[in-house]
Every structure is written in C-alpha cells, then in structure tokens.
Design goal:
2 copies of one chain form a homodimer. Chain A has 14 helices and 11 strands. By secondary structure, chain A is α/β, with parallel strands linked by helices. The first copy, chain A, folds into 2 domains: 227 residues, Aldolase class I (TIM Barrel, Alpha-Beta Barrel); 77 residues, no CATH class.
Chain lengths: 313, 313
Amino acid sequence: MQNRITRLFGISYPINQAGMIWCSGWELASAVSNAGALGVIGGGSMYPDILRDHIRKCKAATKNPFAVNVPLIYPDIDKHIQIILDEGVKIVFTSAGNPKIWTGILKDKGIKVVHVVASVKFAKKSEEAGADAIVAEGFEAGGHNGREETTTMVLLPLVCNAVMIPVIAAGGIASGRAMTAAFALGAEGVQVGTRFAASIEASGNDAFKKKIIETGEGDTKLSLKKLVPVRLIKNKFYEQVQQAEDKGATPEELQQLLGKGRSKKGMFEGDLENGELEIGQVAAQIRDIKPAAEIVKDIWLEFLDTKKRITEL
Amino acid sequence: MQNRITRLFGISYPINQAGMIWCSGWELASAVSNAGALGVIGGGSMYPDILRDHIRKCKAATKNPFAVNVPLIYPDIDKHIQIILDEGVKIVFTSAGNPKIWTGILKDKGIKVVHVVASVKFAKKSEEAGADAIVAEGFEAGGHNGREETTTMVLLPLVCNAVMIPVIAAGGIASGRAMTAAFALGAEGVQVGTRFAASIEASGNDAFKKKIIETGEGDTKLSLKKLVPVRLIKNKFYEQVQQAEDKGATPEELQQLLGKGRSKKGMFEGDLENGELEIGQVAAQIRDIKPAAEIVKDIWLEFLDTKKRITEL
C-alpha cells in the first residue's frame, strides 16, 4: 500500500512512532524504521549534545528514513534546530507551539515538516505555515494534550475536512483495528505512542514499562489543567495534584507542587509514586512488552484483516 | 446488510437513535423507526402518564419496532416499567444504574433489553444479567457520562473483547465515516444522539437546536464531576459551576448551585444561559437541522461509501 504519507516519508507502512520524552531514543527509532515504519527520536527530553548523539547512533543503526520530534516551546530550540540541520535530518515533527516560526526555516533546507495539533485552528495554521502533513491528536493521547479535550473520533473528520495536506491520526491507536478506524475517519497515517513505550527498545525505565501494561480503564487522567494539560497514570503525585485542585489550588501553587524533573523521575528513573507517568488511555489494551518490529507487524497485519472484515460486511 | 443488531431489533439498518431527555419523544422515535433504524423514546424526562402517552402515539405513528429508554436511577422506575409492560413495548434500553435488578424482570416478559455502559466492568455485569446487547458509550458523548473518561476509540475494542453479546457504539458518531470506524473497532451497531437532537422531529426547544449547530470544538465540557459527570455546552450556568469548582466547591455546594429542573430549563424551555445544555462533542460536526429520515439515509449512504473507500485502500 502506497499513499501520500508513505511517499512523503519514503516508508513501507503509513505508521509512525510518536516522539516521546524519556522513551524514544535512537534504539526505538531505528528499530521502528528498520521495520518499515517511521521511527522518531523524541528530542524534548534531550540536551543538545545528547540529541546529536542519538541522531548519529540512529543514522548508524538504520539506512531507512527516521525523524526527530522537537517541542517548539523548549528553551534550547535554536540549538536543537541547528543540530538537526548539521546532522542532515530529513524529517522533523514539531509540536507544542506555533508552527509559524520554524516551519519555513526547516522547509527552506529541504526538510519535511509535520506539526502535531489538537484542533482545526492549529491544523489550518500548520497548513498555512507550509507543513507537509499534520498529526491530529485526540484527548485519549498520553502526555501533553489540547485544552479543547476533543477525542480522536470527533477531531479527525473535522481536521480532515479543514485541510488539504495529509492527516496522521494520534490518540487511542495501538492496533490495526484502530488504524482502520482512523482511515475510515479520513486519516492517511497513524501515529502510535503508548504501544511503542511498552516495547523492548523504548528507553523508559523497566518499572515504567511494567506499569504501562498494568494500567487499566480509568487509570490515566488528564491532569494539571490549570498549567498545561497532561495525561498521567494515577499515582501518589497525581493524587497530590488532584487534592490540591479539589481545594482550589492556584496555577502558582500547582507549579510549585510540580517542581522540576518530575517526568524524568517517573519515566526514566522509575519512581512510580513521585514521578510524572505520561501515557495514553490505550495502555488499557496493552498487556505485553514486545520488540518494536513485532508491534509494527502486528498492527499492519491486523489492519489488513480488519480492512477485509469491513469489506465483507 | 443483516447482522446480530438488525436481527435483534428487526430493523433495516444497524443504527439506533439515543434516548435523550427532553429531546426524544414519540415524534422523533417514530420518524427514525419509519426510516428503517430504531427510534427510542427517552423516558428519563417524562412523568409516567406522559411516557404512556408517548408510547401510544409512537405505536400509532409507526408499524416498525421502536424502544423506550429508562434510566435505572429514576425514582419512578417501577411505574415506568409497569407502563412498558402494559403497553407491550418490545425493546427497552436501560442506563445509569445496575442492570442486575431490572434486566431479568423485563426479559421474563419477552422484552429485548440493551444496557448502556461506559466500562468493561459494567459491560460484563450487563451480560451476566442477561442483556441482549450493550451500548458502549465514550467520553465524547453528551449528557451523563462515565467516571473513567474512556473515549469511544479506546473503549470499543476493550468492550468487544470482553463480552460475547453484540456491542453498539456510542459517543462521537454522527456520520457514516464514524459508523465505519465503529465497525472497524468491533461494534455491530451505532447509537446516534447529538445528530438526532438537531433534527426537525426532536422535541428540544428550537433555540437549543440552533445552539447545537453553532457549537464548535471545545465548546462542550464534562462538568459537575463531583456529582454525576455530565457533558454540557459552555454557558453562564457552566461558567458558574466551573468557577465554584476552581475555588474548591464541595458536592453539596455544587448540588445547591445545580438546583432542580436545569435540564428542562435549558433543552426544553430554551433558556440557553441558565439551563443545562446536554450535547456531545460531535456537535462541532453538525451545521444543519434536518428531518430524521434524511439523517438515517445520509449516515447509511456514507457508511457504504466509506466501506468502499476502505476496501480500495
């Protein structure tokens, strides 16, 4: 199967792994790319030198296309972009910020740019800024999330109707069934995060990976809405935030409670009680930690099966 | 197309209209049933005598099967059930409560019973209680909603894997594209609420219907989570609740703010500022008020088109 997304990236399957802080280094990105999908290095949790190192190791580990994800709100954004240019990265996913500033700069260097959005408004802004594609991410997704709380089922048709560039669906997608659903809603590709966070090659702490496959329905919640909304697994830290919010805590009080380095503590160092554990609702469907290549294959084969089942209805 | 849902209800298309308080009386239910889908009288906002009147008018207006929706938490539930038995209603949708108590009583009289759930736990309870099918309703749905906040995209595969009885998808479904997506995820039918609330035959106030088609992304929010979570259009009443919650209001304070008759005030009397306006996120996809029969036809034809598009991928 070839479509606008496989041609844009030069890949075999219209599937990309989400750029995830603390979880998606070169090992995961290269494993996904070697399996025929698109691996993405999550630059958001990396110092510039670390990012350079991951890009170099990824280039050495795969001959296939891969991408780097850069959250646009990060303080070191200039350094990250310079490294991406220096190292000849060919595909960049931008997120968490205004696509206007950086898209043109990257495109001028011949880089394919994909921006992650949670609303039609930002989908249109991305298209106007010259993005080659967008990721439309629903409320069920892990990590940082839109204030509108629009779910993947509702968001996708809205975004697909609003832009001409191809749309990649994100949020709630960990299987071929969900991939088929996303295509029915108008997507031409899927971005898969949570399922790859529970892979052998993910760089998260083993305790965090084990926690993901134990996470059930209702065990994640969109939290810290007075700051930047983020979907977290409920733990001691989450309960502290919840209690503070129930008592009417101000954004400043919440910021103080959050402090610094919570996500590293949780996902990378494995402090399951005091860290931030960012994961999607779809963790409730995941019960094993598998090699990334097997995840790509499973999703693709189930997509073909589901397509066949729908055809025969 | 025939499947377990069309056979269970004796209908032409595996589509049912949601039982909605203040919006789905006999006019809407009979119009949907006459169009070959399943119309549902929303008993939750009706006094017993009113419910009897609507059932009788519905029987006179259609020869096709129709159903009645009964929220199990309602004080007059005994009277509602007695009227359903007296009037020979053949299909009952139960919601908002434990299916254990009433399912057996209805089934013993030969009535088909469908229970509405928002989690695997209650899906299994419904199956054990003898329900013929379940509606699995995601976070994006209008009105009362589950505490887990699981979206349709994530909930459906979980529920479809957990039970043997057929599953009807609800939440975010207003089009044939979404219907195809729901079938890809494992559903055998779809429940459509918001789209029918904005129909000619819906019994909601015209001002409310107009408000629905003006509702955009992020304009509805799950509110009153300390009481029973309910998805509302943001208005003056919603903002009052939000401000109270931001300051740490107790459930008792919220109950006092809510008072009585808010939903009637909003949806039936058309007080758009002080009433509760219950509607799903998918309102953002709806821009016209149409006859119910046209809605059924549009969804069905787009479902066939989307199936074809998926086949040709």
